[in-house]
Design a protein that fits this description.
The chain has helices spanning 3-17, 25-35, 48-59, 75-85, 87-90, 103-110, 142-145, 170-175, 177-198, 231-250, 276-285, 305-317, 338-352, 379-385, 393-410, and strands at 39-43, 63-68, 93-97, 130-133, 160-163, 202-208, 254-259, 262-263, 291-293, 299-300, 303-304, 326-330, 336-337, 362-364. The protein has 15 helices and 14 strands. The strands form 4 sheets. Strands 4-3-2-1-5-6-7-12 form an 8-stranded mixed β-sheet, sandwiched between helices. It has a two-stranded parallel sheet with strand order 8-11. The chain has a single domain (24-263, 304-333, 375-392), classed as NAD(P)-binding Rossmann-like Domain (Rossmann fold), CATH 3.40.50.720. It is of the alpha/beta class. The longest helix is centred in the middle third of the chain and has 22 residues, at 177-198. The structure holds nicotinamide-adenine-dinucleotide. The site of nicotinamide-adenine-dinucleotide has 30 residues, from helix 3, strand 2, helix 9 and strand 6. Residues 157-331 form the NAD-dependent epimerase/dehydratase domain.
Length: 411
Amino acid sequence: MAADTFDRAANAARSASAGDPAAGAYAQACEQLNKEPRRWLVTGVAGFIGSHLLETLLKLGQEVRGLDNFMTGHRHNLEQVRASVGEQAWQRFTFIEGDIRDPQACARACGAPAPVQATCSGDGEADAGTDTTAGGGVSSGSLAERGRAGAGGPVAAVDFVLHQAALGSVSRSLEDPLLCHAVNVSGFLNMLAAARDAGVRRFVYAASSATYGDHPALPKVEQHIGAPLSPYALSKYVNELYAQVYARCYAMQTVGLRYFNVFGPRQDPLGAYAAVIPRWIAAMLDNQAVHIHGDGATSRDFCFVHNAVQANILAATGTDPAAVNQVYNVAVNARTSLTQLHAAMQQMLLAARPQHVPLAPHYGEFRAGDVRHSQADIAKAARLLGYVPTHNLAQGLRQTIAWYVEQAERA
Ligand SMILES: NC(=O)c1ccc[n+]([C@@H]2O[C@H](COP(=O)([O-])OP(=O)(O)OC[C@H]3O[C@@H](n4cnc5c(N)ncnc54)[C@H](O)[C@@H]3O)[C@@H](O)[C@H]2O)c1
């Protein structure tokens, strides 16, 4: 990790935590939101990144609606946010259980008029998902009091959409490209259409570094992309194209955030499609050797989830017209090989848990569809959004490992 990246992140974190107004755009955006709360929709709210967006927004005094079908997200993520923010803040959250493949669920989540559908049965409410206040069956919050979508009444349009719901994982998309398309492309289009119909101010969506495909240049600069290497990569690129078309044809404001390997607490360590950091922590805590795909030299720009949250808030609230209808890299501009990551994790786990027994990793086949090296140029996000990552890999990993260790000790 480059020393300058470390210093910059540490300085930003220090000044932000000191409440210094010169801390930059993020501190100012948070302050403004605190003064003038907005209404947000977070799709994929029960997932990893979505639940962190929810937590930060509730802590900033915002009203939040969340949409999720629990395909890969979990109720326990929502319960953890609830425990973290407290009951009072939790009252500002309304949860809608629904699927982005259903245009009616998307419309209700955005607060748009319901789309007319030939296939719609009955009153059109029952099959599109159920609204509950957060966590399922918890007492009503402020949005709910104004009219719950599930009760058939209208809900107010949201100001901002942070669209995170999608099926991640390159491998999953190779196994089921049709499902990937249905959720990541058709579901995305449903959300975009609903956001337009609701007249939302801005639609911020999770794009991906997978869009760089086979382009060899490092670091990755937004305008130079290669051919997609998987259905997942293609689906995320199609998202960007649809967002551009909606901006051009319907004067919508959209911002795409190309996340690079985001990690942090609450990322699912289980299943065949789990991301590398939580999967490895789970293996290490279970005294299992880690399996590395390839020779270990594969490298990534690992991005702590708080940086991704910052990018979302800046993307939604930024006032520079030049910053809108753009895509941005979201990472830290550092590159770490899998072997280096493994060594750093072993060291940190040992520090957090002296009884930990470090094991050498097993190296195996490369995985189909994987990009060999990845590193983000974050100058565009810095220039137009004022994005300054607050956490580098080491800072983020320490917090993440501490969280997983605590979970394991509780279990
Ligand atoms: N985590 C990363 O490193 C990374 C990198 C690049 C892009 N992204 C993108 O960021 C977004 C969030 O990723 P994450 O890591 O939090 O994943 P996640 O799987 O934890 O979260 C995705 C959420 O979307 C929900 N969802 C899936 N299909 C749905 C559907 N049809 N209707 C409603 N909800 C649905 C899931 O239940 C889950 O809660 C995704 O769009 C992903 O493609 C993530």
